[in-house]
Amino acid sequence: MELLLKNVNHRIESLCKELTQIHETHSDTILGDITIKHLLGGMRGLKAMVCNTSYVDPMEGLFISGYTVPEFSDKTPEEIFFLLCTGKFPNDSELAELHTELSNRAEVPGYVWDLFHSLPKDTHPMTMLSMGIMAMEGQSVFKRKYLEGIPKSDFWKYSLEDSLNLIAKLPSLAAGIYKILFMNAKLVEHDPALGLAGNLSHQLGINNKDTSFADLVRLYLVLHCDHEGGNVSAFTARVVNSALSNLFLATASGLNGLAGPLHGLANQTCLHFINQIHEEIGVDASLDEIHEFVLKTLNTGNVIPGYGHAVLRATDPRFTAFMKFGDENCANSPYLQTVKKLFDVVPKILKKYKGGKIANPWPNVDAISGSLLYHYGMTHYDFYTVMFGISRTLGFCAQNVIARGLNQPIIRPKSVTNKWLKNYIAEKG
Ligand code: HAX
C-alpha cells in the first residue's frame, strides 16, 4: 500500500500545515454565537468540527474535494475512497495498487458466518452488518499496535490498514447477510478480478445478466460515501474513534446511527411508504390521490420519508443523479413513476405544513434510491440501509484516518443542566 500511504501522508501533511497556521494566528476568531436554540435543537448549524473529506452546501449539495455529484458519479467506490483520503483521484498505478490491496484482504472469517447463522431470522440486516463488523474487531491492527506502544504519529497508518481490511470485506459481508437472511442460499465467493461494486452485485446474485444493475450498485456505493462530518452516523464514528477505539468499533457505532429512520433507514421506510400507496390506491395512483395520502400520513404525526434535511435546502443532487439513472434505465418502472409523483406533490405540501416550519421541503437521496433497487428485483427493502452503510463506511474510514493523522483530540463537548441554564439566564438578566 505504498502509493496510498504516500498520498495520504501528503494530504495529512498539507492539511496539518494549514490548520497549524490557522490555529497559531486565528485561534480566537469567533465563528458564531451559541444560543439556547442550539442546545435544544440538536446543535443544528453549529460549526463545531473540521472535516476535509467532503462538504455539503445547502443549495448545491455534496462536494468531495471540490468535485460536485455529477462530476464524480461515474467513478468507482475505490476511486472515491482514494479521493476522500487524498483529495485527488488515483492514477492508474495508484488505482491498481488499491484494487490489489482490497482484493487480498477480502476474505470474511468463518466465525462471522457462524454468528449470522445463529441469529434469529427477524434480526435486522443492519444489526447483522454491525455485529459482523464488531465480531471482526479482534483483527484490528491499530488495536494491536497501540498496545505495543506505537507513536501517535503512526496512528493514522494503522487506521488506514484497518480501513482497508474492513472495506475489503464489505461486499462479501453484505451479500452474505442478503443470502442468509432472505435467500437461504449458498454464499457466492469473492472474485478477485472484480472491484468492490462488481463483487457486491456478483455476490448478491441479483439480475446478473443485466449490466445496468451492476452499474446501479456502483452508483449506490459512490453516491452514499460521505456527507461531511456532522451527520448522525459520521459524527458518531468520529466521536467513538476520537477515544482511539479502532475503526471496527467506530464503524459499527456509526452504522447503528445510520440504522435510524430519520437517517439512513429512511430508504427502507420510503419503499414501505411507496408500497403502501401501491397497495391502498394502486400503482397508477393519481396526483390528487397521492396528495390525500401524504396529508393523511402527516395527520397521523408521521414524517414523509425521503423529504427534508438538516443541512440541504434544495433537491439533493444525489436524488437527481439517481433520477437520471432511472430515466435512462427504467423510466417505466411503477416505482420510479410514484417517486416522480411524490416529487410533484410533497414539496408543495411541506412548504405550507406546520406554518412553513419545515426547513427543507425537497427530496433527499433516500426518496429514490430504494425504488431503483426494487425495480431490479431487490424487494427485501430492509436490506437497503446495508447498501447505504457499506458505502458510508468509506467516509467513516477516510474521516477518521485523517482525524488521527491530524492528531485531533478526544471529542468531548460540555453539557449543562436545566438548573445551570436557569441560573445563567437569571444572571444575564
Ligand atoms: N415530513 C414531516 N415533517 C417533517 C419532515 C418531513 N419529511 N421534515 C421535517 N419535518 C418536521 C420536523 O419533524 C420538525 O417538526 P417538529 O418541530 O414538530 O418536531 C419540523 O419539520 C422542523 O424540522 P426541520 O428543521 O425542517 O428538520 P430537522 O433538521 O429537524 O430534521 C430530518 C431533518 C431529515 C430528520 C427531517 O427532515 C425528517 O425527519 N425527514 C424525513 C426522514 C428522512 O428522510 N430522513 C433522511 C434524511 C437524509 C439522511 O440523513 N439520509 O441518511
Helix and strand pattern: HHEEEHHHHHHHHHHHHHHHHHH
CATH superfamily assignment of the largest domain?
Citrate Synthase, domain 1
Main sheet properties: 3 strands, antiparallel
The CATH topology of the largest domain is given as: Citrate Synthase, domain 1
Q: Radius of gyration in whole Å, from Cα? A: 22 Å
User: Distance between termini?
Assistant: 60 Å
When the domains are counted, the total is 2
SSE-based structural type: mainly alpha
Q: Given the structure, what is the number of helices?
A: 20
Helix content: 55-70%
CATH architectural grouping of the largest domain = Orthogonal Bundle
Question: Can you list the strand order of the major beta sheet?
Answer: 1-2-3
User: Percent of residues in beta strands?
Assistant: under 5%
Shape: globular
Average pLDDT over all residues: 97
Low-pLDDT regions: none
How many β-strand stretches? 3
CATH class of the largest domain: Mainly Alpha
Small-molecule binders here are: N-hydroxyamidocarboxymethyldethia coenzyme *A
Structure description:
The protein has 429 residues and is mainly alpha-helical. It folds into 2 domains: 77-261 and 380-405, Citrate Synthase, domain 1 (Orthogonal Bundle), CATH 1.10.580.10; 266-375, Cytochrome P450-Terp, domain 2 (Cytochrome p450-Terp, domain 2), CATH 1.10.230. The protein has 20 helices and 3 strands. The chain has a 3-stranded antiparallel β-sheet. Strand 1 and strand 2 (61-64) form a beta hairpin. Helix 10 packs across helix 11 (211-223) and helix 15 (287-299) crosses helix 17 (334-352). It starts with a helix and ends with a helix. The structure holds N-hydroxyamidocarboxymethyldethia coenzyme *A.
